[in-house]
Amino acid sequence: xxxxxxxxxxxxxxxxxxxxxxxxxxxxxxxxxxxxxxxxxxxxxxxxxxxxxxxxxxxxxxxxxxxxxxxxxxxxxxxxxxxxxxxxxxxxxxxxxxxxxxxxxxxxxxxxxxxxxxxxxxxxxxxxxxxxxxxxxxxxxxxxxxxxxxxxxxxxxxxxxx
Length: 162
Fold this sequence. Notes:
Layout: E1 2-5, E2 8-11, H1 20-24, E3 36-40, H2 51-57, E4 66-70, H3 79-82, E5 85-87, E6 93-95, E7 101-105, H4 111-115, E8 122-126, H5 129-134, H6 143-146, E9 151-155
Parallel strand pairs: 2-3, 3-4, 4-7, 7-8, 8-9
Antiparallel strand pairs: 1-2, 5-6
């Protein structure tokens, strides 16, 4: 379900999207007035669904300022999010120069994904017990992978907009 509000778009119930091709029909790359996106899957689902392929199909335009992802159960992120780049015609790519905030709730699939968040200034993670423990400032085993970010919030429960 698409819910546009000014320069923000929230897409709920993504578990109902069949595949990447259906997700691409949202045509987010052409919705250039949108600056903040929220992608949300419903709670209580099992791992092993098509979240990776759906998120890959929801590739936005490169001028995004914020992306929030809730209840994502994919084992990895799509290339456009991991690299903070969108492939373009020819050899070059367009970088998400304006993306300063990424909010994740419930699950961050791999340590590699955390290392590749180097373009961000704000990271918000909620409902991720693994990350809460392993990203403890100064002592967590994963802290060094996100310590370069000036603004990090990791909460035991879900996130609220700050």
